[in-house]
Design a protein that fits this description.
Elements: H1 2-84, H2 87-114, H3 119-140, H4 150-163, H5 169-189, H6 199-221, H7 224-230, H8 233-237, H9 243-267, H10 270-275, H11 281-287, H12 292-299, H13 311-336, H14 340-395
Helix pairs in contact: 2-6, 3-6, 4-5, 5-6, 5-9, 5-13, 5-14, 6-14, 9-13
Keywords: Acyltransferase, Coiled coil, Lipid biosynthesis, Lipid metabolism, Membrane, Phospholipid biosynthesis, Phospholipid metabolism, Transferase, Transmembrane, Transmembrane helix
GO molecular function, one term: acyltransferase activity
Family: Belongs to the GPC1 family.
């Protein structure tokens, strides 16, 4: 019995030792796993830190390259602008602009009479080039809000009709009415002048005159078979432009532009405009104390010339603009669209006004500027002659 008890006791001790060994192995395993997790986490953190440092170094290198490129670009632009201000470049630029302006004024009527079917292409190419260049020039001067005016909207509608919806009678009547109405008469109101050596003034004449010439050519000079093939809206309308519908749709498109302009410029950019950081057509005209709009608004009692530009002045200004558009489109369907010679006389009259304004500019303004520029050029060349005289005196 004693031996059996001893053997049982020894078996119990062995089982306890095995259980203890099992417990120790399990905890050792957990501790080993925890150590592995810690080491892996530590390695991940180290790699994250290394990648963060590499990213920061890469970011700093990229920023440094951007700064260098920006500095180099600014230096190139500065050198280019300085070259643009040199007298030789200015003279060459004005000569090229003068040549292109005269050639365009001479060849455009020739093309309209001899090859009327290619005039829309010529108008489109020039419009895309001139308006794009003007936008970038005006943006540098903070004048690019001018590009959202009604005249540019009319040019856009004309291009849309020519190349996207040539069969739309509504769009054709709207384009014909707007180009012969507010767009052409703006030459008189804005005093656009045909100054051939000025790129800005030539662009202004193009914007207000070339769409009128294009629509006139399509209406009167393009053969009927080409009208039917390329611009079917013209023969579908016939020889008479319906006055009621043309005025209705024209006013509708005008109000669409007006709503968009108020939403994006007057309301959307009111802080920049009010602070003077951006210049618009309405602020330009309302700030002109001698202008018709400013004086009329002053007489109506909406503020003096030194009161600034408030919302009442803006409201009255756009009401006056609406009346101007309405009055200018009335003769289009009554006279211009039905009678070729009346339309041609109107077209020639607007061109004559621009030529007269250009002549006034050359005689009254440019002559004085030219004399001053000659004097400045003489002073520019004088130091070289003086140094040569001084060197000759020293040698003698």
């Amino acid at each position: 019995m004693s031996e059996n008890n001893n053997s049982n006791h020894m078996e119990e001790e062995d089982e306890e030792e095995e259980n203890n060994n099992d417990d120790l192995d399990f905890y050792d395993f957990l501790e080993m796993v925890a150590d592995k997790i810690d080491s892996i986490t530590h390695q991940i953190e180290e790699r994250k830190e290394d990648s963060r440092q590499r990213w920061l170094r890469t970011k700093e290198e990229v920023e440094e390259q951007k700064r260098l490129l920006k500095t180099q670009l600014e230096n190139h632009i500065h050198l280019l602008s300085e070259n643009f201000k040199k007298p030789n470049f200015i003279r060459t630029r004005d000569k090229i602009t003068f040549t292109i302006g005269v050639a365009n004024a001479c060849f455009s009527p020739l093309i309209a009479g001899r090859w009327p079917h290619i005039l829309p292409m010529i108008y489109t190419i020039q419009a895309l080039c001139l308006i794009s260049v003007r936008f970038f020039i005006y943006k540098r001067k903070h004048w690019h809000y001018f590009v959202f005016d009604l005249c540019y909207f009319i040019n856009l509608l004309t291009l849309i009709y020519l190349w996207i919806f040539p069969s739309s009678k509504i769009l054709f009547s709207v384009c014909y009415t707007l180009t012969h109405g507010p767009l052409a008469l703006a030459i008189v109101l804005w005093k656009n002048s045909l100054v051939f050596h000025s790129f800005d003034k030539v662009t202004s004449i193009f914007i207000h005159m070339y769409p009128v010439l294009t629509m006139f050519t399509l209406r009167w000079l393009l053969p009927v078979d080409l009208q039917i093939k390329h611009y079917p809206a013209i023969p579908n309308i016939g020889s008479t432009l319906p006055m009621g519908s043309s005025i209705f749709y024209t006013i509708g498109f005008y109000l669409i532009w007006q709503i968009l302009y108020c939403a994006f410029i007057i309301y959307g950019r009111r802080k920049k405009v009010a602070s003077g950081l951006r210049v618009t057509s309405y602020t330009w005209l309302l700030a002109d104390k001698k202008g018709f709009a400013s004086q009329l608004i002053q007489k109506l009692g909406f503020g003096g010339p030194n009161d600034g530009i408030n919302r009442y002045k803006i409201f009255v200004y756009f009401c006056l603009q609406f009346l101007y558009v309405l009055i200018s489109i009335l003769p289009v369907s009554l006279f211009y669209y039905q009678h070729m010679y009346v339309n041609a006389i109107f077209l020639c009259s607007m061109f004559t006004v621009s030529v007269y304004n250009g002549a006034s500019f050359y005689i009254d303004v440019f002559s004085r500027q030219y004399i001053k520029s000659v004097e400045l050029l003489h002073e520019w060349d004088t130091p070289d002659t003086n140094t040569e005289e001084n060197d000759s005196k020293k040698d003698s």
